[in-house]
Amino acid sequence: MNLNKQFTKLEKSRVQLDVTIGKEEIAKGYSDLLQKYSRTMQLPGFRKGKVPVAVLEKKYGEALKGDVAGDIMEKALGEIFEASNEHERPLPYSQPVLDKAPEFDLEKDLSFSVTYDVFPEVKLGKVDGFKLALPVVAIGDAEMKEELEAIRERNAIVVDCNDGDKAKKDFIATVNYSELDDSGAEIAGTQRQDFVFTIGTGYNIFKFDDEVVGMKKGQTKDFTKSFPADFEDKDLAGTTKKLRVTLTALKARNLPALDDELAQDVNEKFKTLDDLKADIKKNMETALENKMKELRSNALLEKIVEENSFELPESMIGAELESRWQMLAQRFRTDAAQLEKLMIASGQSKASMLESWRSEAEKLLKSRVVVELLLKDREIAVTPEDVEAEFAKIAEGAAISVEEVKKHYADPRRKEYLIDDIKEQRLYAQLLEKCTITKGAKTAFADLFKNEQ
Q1: pTM of the model as a whole
Q2: 258-294 pLDDT, tens per residue?
Q3: Cβ atoms of 96 and 14 closer than 8 Å
Q4: Which of 21, 62, 219, 410 counts the most CB atoms within 10 A of its CB?
């Protein structure tokens, strides 16, 4: 196509594209469309395919000009973008916006401008040689004991307590509760029936665990509870509530003994408790190794982003935030529209939540941009032999066959994700070779994974 183009860089990775299409292209397009309609259109008084061009032009001329302009502009943009690089071509989620409707004149060239977001053009400076502080984490007796206790909890037998038994910490309580007014009457709308929680966990709105301790099944108790100004629930912070709680059921967990029988119940591959302990330690060590690898990579990327300042296009941030919103809806087992209604009902809004995520989303996106640029610059490649080696490594770690691993990665998308991960790990290894790892704060093994719960 006979055209001229000019790209102008704007702020935040936005581009203005000015296009001029030769008048001969416009005239030809208009003529071709008239001929097409003349052959296919049927008007009163004319047979199909016999409508004179002059009649069509007189009746539909302006509309046809609009169609021609739209078709030619779309074709021109297609040609331009196909031959453009990532810093000139619009992002998939950035639709080009027409600045204003162009003037259509068969005797003149057609000129128009569009603006859109592109992949950030970043010139990276320092990308290695950083000092990275990582937490010091050990797996000792305390960590083993905690994991064993968790296994006992998962294998506990829940039994009903006797009528005379008193509620204790770790018992499972079923209660009815409500708020009371100054006269001691229940406040309408505050009643809650058959609420179940484990005493001592604080998994109830009013945190009345201590008040329930000592109660017997069937007993009702009225009490007043004050909440500090910094209480986690803002609606209760700084308030005093009168509450009525009735204990309707009480259950206890009978924890199994830590012995060979428990180990065999967990998995038939264990013959003794020592077998179970050895497996737990191995899994914890693997989890710790993977977590520390993740922390090293994240710390490195954070340093690179701090060292190399650049702006992200708004459409990229918007797409990431919208993706997080959709994921939150899935977590709540609802759709995005219903989630928004739930947020409004709880005094929040989608806009405020997206804004609260914005800073973290920008950091993540900048890290992705950095990784993509470095992978491209260093031309890191993965061979079929590398993939086979990774299959073998995964199989060994999961104690399954290589064939089972291959079956899992038979989906091309999964395999592509694996290849991308191999590339990234190689990139991090190259960069970390020139970094200094220092000891950070001592951190408990469990605390290292808290945010993942």
Answers
A1: 0.72
A2: 999 999 999 999 999 999 999 999 999 999 999 999 9
A3: no
A4: 21
CATH T-level topology, domain 157-254: Chitinase A; domain 3 (3.10.50)
pLDDT at 47: 63
92 backbone dihedrals φ, ψ, rounded to 5°: -55, -30
If phi > 0 it is left, if psi is from -120 to 50 it is alpha, else beta; for residue 51 that is: beta
Closest by CA to 130, choosing from 382, 453, 403, 438, is 438
CATH fold label, 262-452? Trigger factor, domain 2 (1.10.3120)
Q: What is the pLDDT of residues 236-268, one digit of tens each?
A: 999 999 999 999 999 999 999 999 999 999 999
Rounded to whole angstroms, how far apart are CA atoms 265 and 276? 10
CATH class for domain 3-117?
Answer: alpha beta
Closest by CA to 99, choosing from 82, 83, 116, is 116
User: Which DSSP string corresponds to 20-80?
Assistant: EE-HHHHHHHHHHHHHHHHHH---TTS-TT---HHHHHHHHHHHHHHHHHHHHHHHHHHHH
3-state secondary structure of 252: strand
